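Input:
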Amino acid sequence: MTHPVDTILSLALLSVLFSLGTSHLTGLIRFVAFQGVVVSIVPFFIGHEMTGGGLLFTMVTLWIRGVVIPLSIYLVIKRVAIHREVEPIIGYHASLFAGLVLIVAAFVVSYKLDVPLIMKSVLLIPTAITILVTGMFMLIARRNAIAMVLGYIMMENGIYLVGTTFSTRAHRIVEFGILLDVLAGVMVMAIILQNIKQKFDVVDTAVLRTLKE
Amino acid sequence: MIEILMLAPFLTGIMAFFLSRSSGRALLVLTGAFHLGLSVLIWIKRPVALFPDYFAVTPEGLLSLLVISLLFFLIAIYSTGYLKAAKIKSEHIFTGSMLIFLATMTMVTMSDHIMVMWIAIEATTLASAPLIYTHRTKASLEATWKYVLICSVGIAMALLGSVFITLAMDIGKVDALVSFSALTSVAKQLDPMWLKTGFVFIFVGYGTKMGLAPMHTWLPDAHSEAPSPASALLSGVLLNCAYLGIFKTNKIMHAAGLGDFSSTILIVFGLISIMAAATFILKQTEYKRMLAYSSVENMGIIAFGTGIGGIGAFGAIICLIHHSLIKSSLFLTSGNMLLGYGSGLIEKTGRMAKLMPKSFVAFFGGFAGISGFPPFGIFIGELFIIVGAFRTGHFFVAGIFILSLCVIFAGFANQVMKISFHDTTAEEIKITEKASMVWPQYALLLTSIVLCFWLPDSLYQTIIDAVANIGGGY
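Output:
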């Protein structure tokens, strides 16, 4: 029987493919926001006991990962947007193909892993791995600084999903600290992006190559 | 008590954002003095944390804490003179970030919970990012961007590694706190496969922050573009903080009987770092970058020594302490040079012995210390590491180690000679060497010399306690 959470996770997997194929930053942001929402609501469906505090925490996570973080980057794009292209180093078709290979590999790996799951969802671990590695892929395969920051956010989303999949033992306060760190990190990156735009007039990392050796 | 140590600089840091230049500088020194006093008190009393689930006073943490405190205090004194001469536009952001940076580093030394450690180390990245962008130039912006992105991505790997360690607990059916001290005591029950995976990820993550090659690419940029007091902090203590994360995880590995696995990784990456530094130091054209590569080298030495274990691990801790003292003094002196010559290029400098005699003494002393000359402590540390390597039968790697050190010494000496004695186009020096801008360096070097001849019992015992688990000691 299909677990209810698999339905949303399959959408998240689809959004990964879309985010690899899209050429527009605003489109990419929407997919990243969607993934943020998905990874935040997964704890609703799996074995975590939902106490008042837990519920509150999940809502805060949802708010930060799904709304605040994508919105802050979206505002940066609005302010600095002349080029809305993600400026790929590896082309869209190749990226899409890499994404498909990645998903297959993620399934193979997660079948091989002998991990005690909290719940019987088939898609949980493959999705977590896929989101995580796609984030890394974006960091390497896109030259636009904003796309790179989005890659970093995807990576953090993936790690969060890995964390919720594996373990129920994390303390709320600690998870909240991690969330704050990620948020602060994205804010700092957003400030740097605006400064890059002011100083260099583009947000293409090809201009950031003067310091060497 | 230890929570006050974290909170105080954090609060004064926030205050500093709203203060005038002169009161900001005073606050910097005052907080430094308060922090140092409290650290010494904690060293003596060894209190228990208010939240023992998350924080603890550990020997290795205490060592780092005392180094951080001492360095920050001296660097704060230097900063008062430096800031007057350097005319930085947004000085309140600089002082505020320095203090918050101190708070986050203190948190690293006190963290016992694996995730809290991660939170603290990521926080150090974010708090120090504004410091690197202080000069508001294109190059410093590039350095900041690389620093934040590379370190954040790297440290994200460490978060994944920490998650794997909790997984190792789940599979091993261990019911304990997710803290380094608790895990070390139940290490045998952890699932070895996931523990190993966790270590690798944590090593890559914190290794990025520590500046181990090949993940070091952010380090020379950040260290050379930051203003000198900030470079001194970055190199002197931030790298130690990241090392602490690796060191504590390595302890778990040893307790679990997987010491060979982690040692091999430490030795290999340590050697790669030393060799990478050797190749880059030879052709450096900027002195701050040269110092930065020397940090990569020293972090390599420390990782190598930790991997060797036994007396080598003892040597690694000695190197760690002395590298902080000497390298921060060198970076502070490089600030004088930058202000004096008005350029970071080695070819624009020269005749330092004549033009800036006081800074020259600090610079040359620092060079002798960092290259491993007696009577400075790095000599003893490296000697212990080499002895340890021979004792454990690592003859081949010890050979590479010694050879690389020779190459680095040759490259370093060549550049230092150019700076000190060669002719220069710079006829006059743009600053006067004020006492506040040379005495902190003298104090740091002097501490290194004193510690070389006289290691107080409590310090010795703390080092032994820190490395006991990885077969440390004589």
